[in-house]
Specification:
Blueprint lengths: L1 H32 L1 H68 L5 H21 L4 H30 L2 H9 L2 H184 L8 H32 L7 E4 H19 L2 E4 L7 E4 L1 H17 L6 E12 L2 E10 L33 H11 L3 E7 L3 E9 L4 H4 L8 E4 L1
Parallel strand pairs: 2-4
Antiparallel strand pairs: 1-3, 2-8, 4-5, 5-7, 6-7
Bound molecules: adenosine-5'-diphosphate (ADP).
């Protein structure tokens, strides 16, 4: 597994490399295939072409110059040959004259050598002018005159040798020789002039060619230099581009190497992670096995649960039918209580009425001893009526038929209202009663009759379960600890018997009394607190108790607050009304 991961990274490296190559390759191809580059290639051939043209031109110029020189030399040779030929003729003439004049044969030496040279020179001249038809024609015309002149010279020499000076002198004086010499001079002069003319033409042509070659060389050299400079510039740019590309490649290579290192590092980390994953995989496998076992167990439990649910469903159906039966019974109970209420209260009211009439001596006075009996009858009647009222109240609450007439209730006024109602009981028990002043703006949202009923019940209990001479305090304050839930707390505190801790949670249940014995001091049904708490909760509040046996109890009724927090925050002052008996 790790090897495969490493392989993946290797391929990532080669991928990164090929990416760099593929990035740089098109650049290079663009550079090679670009039109500018084709022009540059052509320009690179330019100097070579120019040099080739220059070479060919130079070679042709040199060849032509060599030909011109040969022609010039040839022309000069012709001129020299013509001059030499004429000079040899003059030498022969000079030798003939000297011999004619002196008769000295030593003068014949230049004559003989002159003739020999003349023949040689004439032959050479003919050979030299072989391709020149004009010169050949001139030489053709010269040959008979030369022969004639040599004949006249030979005639003079022969005449001097054979006859003597006068004969020879007459030959010379005839002037024929001079005429021949003039003709020869003229022809030789024409030959030389023609050659000079040729020479001039050759030299002029050579000068023109030389100028052309020079211009070609100059222009070619300038072009070559220009092309070389342009090419040099292009090559420099090319070299710069190549250098930039090389630098880019170096940078990319460096980056690639760094990436490679990073990838290798990551590869190592991946290998380590792979090992960790393998360990985790094993752990997961064992967890999976455990889970599978647990799943099997859960499946079993689910089956059991299903069976339980089925059993519960059955039980629910049983409960539902029981609840329906209970509701039926409850309705029957309510009907019964309503009926009984009427049936019980009517005779009880009659008992109270007749007892009161008897006490008042209607229709006739009763003996004094019967007054006490009548008082007990009245007390029992009130007690029974109270019991019946409590039972009916509770039955109505349980049946949910109590109607709450909710509204804003000013607590201070309500507390003041209850005081005269419980004053006689307080006095009969010798208790001290204090109603602490509370904020007159303390207003709760409640049904005032129900609040009054609860407070009377709590105060009545406090009176009942506090030994004579006790202290009973009524107070009210705002509870503003929770900004969103604002309540008013109305407290009834006594210094009575207190309630054992184990009974605190049950005294709010119906028919529960701490002392349920028949011979207990206080009367009661055990329904007062149950009714009070139900009423408190019915108004959105609650009723709770704190108590210590032998010290006293505090019952707190909480109700929803209507007033503002600022007003509620006001501090309380000492009691303004106290009642002691
Ligand atoms: P009753 O007063 O009719 O017995 P309640 O429901 O009002 O019924 O009270 C239930 C019981 O709670 C009382 O019997 C009494 O034992 C106890 N109790 C109620 N108020 C006080 C109190 N202020 N001090 C001590 N015990 C009390």
């Amino acid at each position: 597994m790790p090897a495969r991961k490493f392989g993946t990274n290797q391929s990532a490296v080669s991928l990164a490399r090929s990416k760099v190559q593929s990035e740089s390759e098109p650049k290079r191809r663009r550079f090679v295939d670009s039109p500018a580059n084709r022009w540059r290639n052509l320009l690179a051939l330019g100097p070579a072409i120019v040099v080739l043209v220059l070479g060919m031109t130079t070679f042709d110029g040199v060849r032509r110059t060599r030909e011109s020189r040969a022609l010039v030399a040839h022309t000069r040779n012709v001129i020299d040959g013509a001059q030499a030929m004429f000079s040899a003729l003059q030498d022969a003439e000079t030798g003939e004259r000297g011999y004619v004049i002196t008769g000295d044969s030593t003068y014949l030496a230049p004559y003989v050598s002159g003739i020999a040279t003349l023949r040689t020179d004439t032959a050479e001249l003919r050979a030299l002018t072989q391709g020149n038809l004009e010169q050949q024609a001139r030489l053709d015309s010269l040959s008979p005159i030369l022969r004639e002149r040599l004949a006249t010279l030979a005639a003079g020499v022969a005449s001097r040798r054979a006859i003597g000076f006068d004969s020879a002198a007459s030959v010379v004086r005839s002037g024929h020789g001079r005429v021949l010499m003039d003709s020869i001079r003229t022809i030789v002069g024409n030959v030389m002039a023609s050659e000079r003319n040729l020479l001039d033409r050759h030299q002029a042509a050579e000068a023109v060619r030389g100028g052309v070659v020079t211009w070609i060389l100059l222009a070619g050299t300038a072009t070559a230099v220009f092309l070389a400079l342009v090419l040099n510039g292009l090559l420099l740019r090319h070299a710069q581009t190549e250098a930039r590309l090389a630098h880019d490649l170096d940078v990319r290579n460096t980056q690639l190497e760094e990436q490679n290192l990073e990838l290798e590092l990551q590869s190592q980390q991946l290998q380590e992670q792979a090992a960790e994953l393998e360990v985790q995989n094993e752990e997961l496998q064992s967890t999976s096995d455990t889970l599978a076992e647990q799943a099997a167990e859960l499946e079993m439990q689910a089956e059991q649960l299903e069976a339980t649910i089925r059993a519960l469903d059955d039980a629910n159906q049983v409960a539902e039918s029981a609840r329906a039966a209970a509701e039926l019974a409850n309705r029957a109970k309510s009907d019964f209580l309503a009926t009984m209420s009427h049936e019980l209260r009517t005779p009880l009211n009659a008992i109270a009425g007749y007892a009161q009439l008897m006490q008042l001596g209607v229709p006739e006075p009763v003996p004094a001893a019967h007054h006490e009996y009548l008082a007990r009858i009245q007390q029992s009647q009130r007690h029974l009526l109270g019991v019946i009222n409590s039972v009916l109240n509770f039955a109505r609450i349980e049946a949910g038929s109590v109607v709450y007439e909710m509204g804003d209730v000013a607590i201070a006024a309500l507390l003041a209202e209850v005081e005269p109602l419980i004053a006689p009981q307080m006095q009969s028990r010798g208790h001290t009663y204090a109603c602490l002043p509370c904020d007159p703006t303390l207003v709760v949202y409640a049904d005032p009759d129900k609040v009054r009923q609860i407070l009377l019940n709590l105060l009545s209990n406090a009176i009942k379960f506090t030994p004579s001479g006790g202290q009973i305090t009524l107070s009210a304050e705002a509870l503003i600890d929770e900004p969103t839930e604002k309540y008013a707390a109305i407290r009834v505190r006594d210094t009575g018997l207190g309630i054992p801790p184990e009974k605190l949670s049950t005294i709010f249940d119906p028919f529960v009394q701490v002392d349920a014995s028949h011979n207990r001091a206080a009367e009661g049904t055990g329904l007062g607190l149950a009714i009070s708490r139900e009423l408190a909760r019915g108004m959105g509040g609650d009723l709770v108790v704190e108590s210590t046996v032998g010290v006293g109890s505090t019952f707190t009724l909480t109700l929803g607050l209507v007033m503002s927090i600022e007003t509620a925050n006001k501090t309380t002052s000492p009691p303004v009304s106290e009642m002691a008996t």
